[in-house]
Amino acid sequence: MKKIINTPNAPAPIGPYNQAILTGNTLYTSGQIALNPVTGELVLDSIQNETKQVMENMKAVLEAADMTFENVVKTSIFISNMNDFTEINAVYGSYFNATTAPARETVEVANLPKFVNVEISMIAIK
């Protein structure tokens, strides 16, 4: 049985999807971009601030499912410019314990929703 996870502390979906789905003990999140959930505006002033907003949105989704970044077992990072990898990785890494960090892939893509620079999705297990 699947449980829909939605929280006002992360941006509302901009299409026919939910922020996350919990099935059993496994949480599958939709990709998050740097939309500020309060203002609805994109945070694009720097790649660091953009990535931080993405991670804060993801934190809110995890919390809505009674989880933390410690529960995350897999992440997917999509970036529009691989030259931003070092800055994105530094912000992303600050949310995880290096010894228990999840598996991950980082992929450069041609475009992302709303032409943002980074989108991240996660799988977490209770």
UniProtKB/TrEMBL annotation:
CDD domains, per the entry: YjgF_YER057c_UK114_family
Highest taxon of source: Bacteria
InterPro entries: RidA, RutC-like_sf, YjgF/YER057c/UK114
SUPFAM superfamilies in the record: YjgF-like (SSF55298)
Signal sequence, renumbered to the chain: none
Gene Ontology annotations for the cellular component aspect, listed alphabetically: cytosol
GO molecular function, one term: deaminase activity
Xref: NCBIfam families: Rid family detoxifying hydrolase
Family, similarity comment: Belongs to the RutC family.
Protein name: RidA family protein
